[in-house]
Amino acid sequence: MRNVLLLLPFVALLGGCSIFHRGPRAEDGMTDRHYNKQFAHIPWEEIGRSVEGRPIYKTEFGEGEDVTLFFSCFHGAERATARFGFEFADLLHKNPDLIAPGKKVVVVPLLNPDGFVRGTRNNANDTDLNRNYPTSNWGQQPEGRTVDFGATPASEPESRIVLKLMADHQPDKILTIHQPLKCNNNDGPNGLALAELMAEYNGYEVKPYIGYPTPGSYGTYAGIELGIPMVTLELPPGGPNSAEFDVFWGENRDALLAVVNCDLAELSARD
After folding, report:
1. What residue spans define the domains of the chain?
2. Phi, psi values for residue 231, rounded to 5°
3. Average pLDDT along the chain
4. Rg, C-alpha atoms of the chain
5. Which CATH code of 3.40.630.10, 3.20.190.10, 3.40.50.1820, 3.20.20.140 fits the domain covering 46-269?
6. Residues 6 or more apart whose Cβ sits within 8 Å of residue 63
């Protein structure tokens, strides 16, 4: 039986403090009371734990064989991506009719809770969770950049959670949320039609390359090497409780739904 928890993933079990409230960054304005009330109604299932033992959750919506996996907050310092993921889950929970028949979406809104608490890009092992996948170029340091790949491919518990979800759900499409480059980054040629579809709604530029190499990235692994249609949505700059957040959430709400509900065969036939 699934361990479905009606709990708020924003609350860290260690110390009982909100992971949105982390000392000097309290100016984000996110309080336990507000977000407990806002998101506690969503049925969350714990799917594993971070390096420091914080739970990582998913929630599922819709029924069908066409599956979209959605991940946000690979990088803890990209704080608005976590709220973006929770808002997407909240939207689908409150409006189940937004999902077309035969479609299913699995949402993991906060993959890196330790980095989120710390306000760091990397996880508690100082590994970049978006460079820790078993790609052919894992461990290759790009010129002019220093990358924390981890000890081995998929060395981190957070990365292994992602790989298990892929094995369990065999996704047809993948969406990941990052910040702050403001583009629809198609991860491999099979994601181009999805990126172009999103651009019809959010108006962001479609980019097959974000301007620097990303060895060991999830997009390289799932999108390029496995060939799963995938888009990395890069949000514009802006904090999780800012006026900018309201703008880019409004810009992307329908773009996300379009990806979930599209028919890949019909989409490819348009080109």
Report:
1. 46-269
2. -130, 135
3. 87
4. 17
5. 3.40.630.10
6. 102, 104
